[in-house]
Design goal:
mainly alpha
Length: 103
């Protein structure tokens, strides 16, 4: 089980809402689930939410700065977990912007 804190869920939701990675705003209408579920206590019951939260918790990434630092070491960090939130048809476009700018 993933031990997710409220702040991790909040950060994960902010990522998907485009507040951390502006390019993700473009995908808002096609997300396979609403980011708000990441703020719920039962979020880890959803496989795609659990995967994203687990990646954040395991690497202790809970801020934009830590996320940018992770991408310096591992440019593919979070790519696969975020793809689980997007329709297959968007994956090649998504890959083209990866790793995205956070500015």
């Amino acid at each position: 089980a993933v031990v997710s804190t409220q702040s991790t869920g909040e950060f994960a939701a902010a990522i998907l809402e485009g507040k951390v990675i502006p390019a993700l705003q473009h995908y808002d209408k096609v997300l396979l689930a609403r980011p708000g579920i990441l703020r719920k206590t039962w979020a880890t019951l959803q496989p795609r939410a659990e995967t994203l939260l687990k990646h954040l918790v395991n690497k202790d990434v809970d801020s934009r700065d830590k996320l940018v630092q992770m991408w310096k070491d591992n440019p593919n960090y979070l790519y696969s977990p975020l793809c689980q939130w997007l329709p297959q048809s968007t994956h090649s476009d998504f890959k083209a912007i990866w790793p995205p700018s956070v500015r």
